[in-house]
Amino acid sequence: MIIFEETSRFSQLQQGCVATIGKFDGVHLGHQLILDQLKQQAEQLNLPSLVILIEPHPEEFFAASNEDCPARLTSLREKLELLDSFGVDFVFKLNFDQTMSELSAESYIEDILVEGLGVAKFIVGNDFRFGHKRKGDFALLQSKGLEFGFEVIETAAYERNGQRISSTFIREQLAQDDFNLVEQLLGRPYSMKGEVERGQQLGTDLGFPTCNLNPGRRKIPLHGVFACEVRLGDLYRQAAVNIGYRPTITEDGSALLEAHILDFDEDLYSKTIEVIFRKKVRDELKFDGLDALKQQMTVDVEQVREIFSQGAP
Length: 313
Description:
This protein is of the alpha/beta class. The chain folds into two domains: 159 residues, Rossmann fold, CATH 3.40.50.620; 120 residues, Elongation Factor Tu (Ef-tu), domain 3 (Beta Barrel), CATH 2.40.30. It contains eleven helices and 14 strands.
């Protein structure tokens, strides 16, 4: 998969494409259905498949603070890895900034879709809005498609028990700690992936060394302590994981994922790990001091052991 940020680079490589557009947060089963549709249409025309990936999310760009935007299911890195795994040929990372927010719907179509990417077929939801003040819609795309010679195809919709699968719905299920349902909606267990960073060594000092990951998003979809599996290459290990803002330790507002891998003492700094969420243990709490925190961590680890001993996945 080739990733690019300037349409001029794509025009040097290709003479056209079949494209779709979106934030693809979570790359859930609904998104996967669209990707299948995209690849089928591309194969019919013998053209490459291309995803226009909107980054950052417009809601994030316009949000005054982290709390004002929706939580992200997947970081940019995770999205790109998932899109690659589903066989997409190209990703055009569309930088959503002030200039892009002010681009007219007509220019959006002519400059990006027609001149920039040479779109032959454009697969998009009938509720898709774009351009300055969101004035562009499906009808405008169809009209401009007739004018410029590209076909507009409505995305297939994926429903489960009458519920349309969406990133918003999955966020709601994560907030309710329904990891089994989320796994069904994603087609995989919910996880976060990243490179292990050096922290304050506080966990080690307390007797619970942790692997620290930056969640890579403005707002995290989970808070608290969880029973998790950590994937290290082909190896899976059980872990007690805290994700949140560490109110006992810091007040800087930055989120951190800390994974204490059970019965494990290898150095994982700078290595990439995947943390798979299985069951919630408790909410994030603020403690009176480090002694109280250590006591609670002892309880948390024992609870995680108990959860896995009872046959958690």
